[in-house]
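Encode chain A's predicted structure.
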Amino acid sequence: MSGCVLFAWRRATPPFLIGGAEVSQRLLAEEFAEAGWQVIYLGAHEPPWDAAGEHEAMITRLEGSCEYDFDHRSDVLGYVWRGVHCFAAPQAAISGLLGKLLATYSPDLVITSQEGSADLAEAARSHAKVVGWLHSVSATGTSVLQGGPHHALATSKFVLSHVQGRANAMLFYPPFSPCQVNPSTRSDDLLMVNPVPAKGGELVRELAHQLPHRRFTLVEGWWDTRAEYDLPNVAYLPRTEAMDSLYASHRLLLVPSTVPDAFPRVIIEAGLAGLGAIGANVGGIPEAIAGAGMVLLPSDPMAWAAAIESLRASQLGKLGAAARTRALPLTRSCLPELVGAGIIAG
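Encoded structure for chain A:
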């Protein structure tokens, strides 16, 4: 089982991250590379939303970890990360560079998703089999379907239920890696990742007021919201890739999203570290928890406070063990699922 696969989108190339979609695609790209595939990854060093370019920060990060080449004429940054050949370009150059990569590498498979992916899928579908990865049910997440991909990967049953019958959509849970830290004494209390309004930041702020004796750790996600959490029982941490140690040291994860998240990676990642969760009863959150945690309405802070206070050490231990049992099967190899769907050859 080998060939050439091209990941193409308008977000960052590995290992740079913003959220779950970036991590999921990086892990799948690395699995392809480990299986002997030639893996090309086209992305951008300018976000597809209104933000400054990041190629200088990317170069600083790459220095000392891998060789890279920055072409000042084309403004394209090239490097190899864990066997994945990456090209980070300006947004205006993505479409043209996609055409060049298709002609140069003749990939067997193109995987695309998120912002502008409909155009990328349409451009690639006459050159290779095209798969659209549906990371959410939002307009951005499902826009790739407008480009006519040959297949679609739905990141949860919740997502699949919204696109059933379109582009040969199939259930494809995200890839996960085993926890790299052995949980020891859980000296920290409550953990939340990405404390922005859509992810339930307002509810967590209310909980911090209601429960002044409990300690909250908030980890920056999409943007820095620390100014909104200037409370004595709140520790606000900058964005980090070293989440395993945080999962391993906390007693409970809070996922109070107010939007229909597709399948929050944090729930499974935390479960792999034996950390249970309370999540909102929206989107694919109950599916991710799958009975190995608690599910509440995101609009009822009193219920969340009562649930948090009701969990004693022994109950938290059982919750964490159940979360780990639920999460472990998702550390599987993903390529056999693509073989089974006829997307790649066995």
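The mean pLDDT is 95.
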